[in-house]
Automatic annotation (TrEMBL):
<dbReference type="InterPro" id="IPR006145">
    <property type="entry name" value="PsdUridine_synth_RsuA/RluA"/>
</dbReference>
<keyword id="KW-0413">Isomerase</keyword>
<feature type="domain" description="RNA-binding S4">
    <location>
        <begin position="1"/>
        <end position="64"/>
    </location>
</feature>
<dbReference type="Pfam" id="PF00849">
    <property type="entry name" value="PseudoU_synth_2"/>
</dbReference>
<comment type="similarity">
    <text>Belongs to the pseudouridine synthase RsuA family.</text>
</comment>
<dbReference type="InterPro" id="IPR050343">
    <property type="entry name" value="RsuA_PseudoU_synthase"/>
</dbReference>
<dbReference type="Pfam" id="PF01479">
    <property type="entry name" value="S4"/>
</dbReference>
<dbReference type="GO" id="GO:0003723">
    <property type="term" value="F:RNA binding"/>
</dbReference>
<dbReference type="GO" id="GO:0005829">
    <property type="term" value="C:cytosol"/>
</dbReference>
<dbReference type="InterPro" id="IPR020094">
    <property type="entry name" value="TruA/RsuA/RluB/E/F_N"/>
</dbReference>
<dbReference type="InterPro" id="IPR018496">
    <property type="entry name" value="PsdUridine_synth_RsuA/RluB_CS"/>
</dbReference>
<protein>
    <recommendedName>
        <fullName>Pseudouridine synthase</fullName>
        <ecNumber>5.4.99.-</ecNumber>
    </recommendedName>
</protein>
<dbReference type="GO" id="GO:0120159">
    <property type="term" value="F:rRNA pseudouridine synthase activity"/>
</dbReference>
<keyword id="KW-0694">RNA-binding</keyword>
<dbReference type="InterPro" id="IPR020103">
    <property type="entry name" value="PsdUridine_synth_cat_dom_sf"/>
</dbReference>
<dbReference type="InterPro" id="IPR002942">
    <property type="entry name" value="S4_RNA-bd"/>
</dbReference>
<dbReference type="InterPro" id="IPR036986">
    <property type="entry name" value="S4_RNA-bd_sf"/>
</dbReference>
Length: 233
């Protein structure tokens, strides 16, 4: 593996940032300063240090992205920019977005190559809530909240699991759901005669969207966040 890729996978910055650190002589390999970003590194054999601190490569990555609109939740697409294109760091080839957000939906998206965790987070039987901030075309009518919360809405000939609703303003709610069906939030609101004007996911289980991340920005998850996700799933 290239030295710059090794450092980026270890969570030490973007591609540009790690290349700069290498060229400034801040990186050593086996005790010798290395200024070549394409230096080949043997994992488990070579000792890589940044500012004299040994760096350990992480084979599994966990990234929080504040997904912008007009970007597809896919690993590749012939026409549109994908969520992986938003990550300006080296990623293992097997990384993928956990679940999908529609092109016009923004907010929290987890990107990882931990397939086991992803499956558990998305499986309805594990009841991991996904929380959405929803702007509506009109206020909820009498009985609408009950319909959303009692599981009486049917999509694709199958009832949805009961949701939780928090009314923030006349036309703004928090909707907590335990599934991730195709266009689920929009279709649930359409089923009660309403329409979603704007949709943003702000949480997945215990993982909250970092308010410091602007649209399109990302960061690696902390150890505490990773542990919390694994515990809830």
């Amino acid at each position: 593996m290239r030295l710059d890729k090794y450092l980026a996978h270890a969570g030490l910055g973007t591609r540009k940032e790690v290349k700069l650190a290498i060229r400034k002589g801040r990186v050593s390999v086996n005790g010798e300063v290395c200024r070549k970003d394409d230096r080949k590194i043997q994992e488990g054999m070579d000792v890589v240090c940044l500012d004299k601190e040994e760096i350990y490569y992480e084979a599994v990555v966990y990234i929080m992205l504040n997904k912008p609109q007009d970007v597809v939740s896919a690993t590749s697409d012939p026409t549109y920019e994908t969520v992986l294109d938003c990550i300006d760091a080296f990623l293992p080839k097997d990384c993928f977005p956990v679940g999908r957000l529609d092109m016009d939906t923004e907010g929290l998206l987890l990107i990882t190559n931990d397939g086991k965790l992803a499956h558990r987070l998305l499986s309805p039987k594990h009841h991991v809530e996904k929380t959405y901030l929803v702007d509506l075309a009109q206020p909820l009518q009498e009985g609408d909240q009950k319909k959303l919360e009692n599981g009486s809405i049917v999509l694709d000939e199958e009832p949805v699991l009961p949701a939780r609703v928090e009314i923030l303003e006349d036309t703004q709610i928090l909707l907590h759901i335990q599934e991730g069906r195709f266009h689920q939030v929009k279709r649930m609101l359409y089923a009660i005669g309403n329409e979603v004007i704007h949709l943003k996911r702000i949480a997945m289980g215990p993982l909250l969207l970092d308010e410091a991340l602007a649209s399109g920005e990302w960061r690696y998850l902390s150890e505490e966040e990773i542990t919390a996700l694994k515990n809830v799933a």
